[in-house]
Amino acid sequence: MTTTGFQDHYPDDYAHCYGCGRLNEHGMRLKSVWDGPESVCRFTPRPHQTGGLRDIVYGGLIASLVDCHCAGTAAAAKLREEGFQPGERPMPRFVTASLKVDYIAPTPIGVEIEVRARVVEMKGRKAVIAATVSAGGTMTAKGEAVMVQLRETASATEER
Amino acid sequence: MTTTGFQDHYPDDYAHCYGCGRLNEHGMRLKSVWDGPESVCRFTPRPHQTGGLRDIVYGGLIASLVDCHCAGTAAAAKLREEGFQPGERPMPRFVTASLKVDYIAPTPIGVEIEVRARVVEMKGRKAVIAATVSAGGTMTAKGEAVMVQLRETASATEER
Predict the structure, then answer these.
(1) Which of B42, B80, B84, B156 would bridge with B90, disulfide CB 3.0–4.6 Å?
(2) ipTM
(3) CATH code at B65?
(4) Considering CB atoms only, which of B26, B60, B96 is closest to A68?
């Protein structure tokens, strides 16, 4: 995987997330990119990331995907608002204030999951991001996250 | 760890969850027990389960803990409603319809996390469970889950 995602531009100190940190060698290293006005993140669960039943994905992973993808989307959207792409300016870092996931159908394991997100609201350091989770073309979950930008990354002057 | 939790009584087919399945050898094997009217689950995150910053827990793990603990609590509460403890009757299995987590403060890594839950509503196959997440005595998150009992476990006559 050599695709560059939003998360690859997080400052080093903020790049240790198990879900999406490029510096977490045990993590999932999720990568989010723009696809027109939306952002997209694709991930194929590991065989042991099952739910109660052996053929579905565990709910905590779905929540993790939504969480990390929405945090990345908030950061990239903040840059985009200022007219920049990730990599062109220091990347802000958003953390989750609130996360809601509605599970619509079981997510099958062994299939690539696609998470798509869009900005619902962006105001000061707060962002509201809505997401959908699909597997094999079927939507299995919907999420919404309230994200808050860390102050220290709001004033960063140099990307590390 | 030889403590018996609610999850140890799930039927085999429903015991593969990465979060709490006793048959998932790679999983976290969360265990929930009653503590008076509340249920409690304790877990010390693994060193790599960090958030963006190296000294905090990633949000997806918090969501996972709330999710699995609420599912287990719903199952045990359903039994309790009928006058039984886990192990005395076949264990029902609840799945998550909706999960909400409010992140109040960063959860430090290296500290045992305690998740507590209580039943807010139990009606037919639906249960609403509220949870709190604490680390080192400080509450760091609150959650609420809507759980739905799987029909097949509602009619189970024998625990496997």
Answers:
(1) B156
(2) 0.93
(3) 3.10.129.10
(4) B60
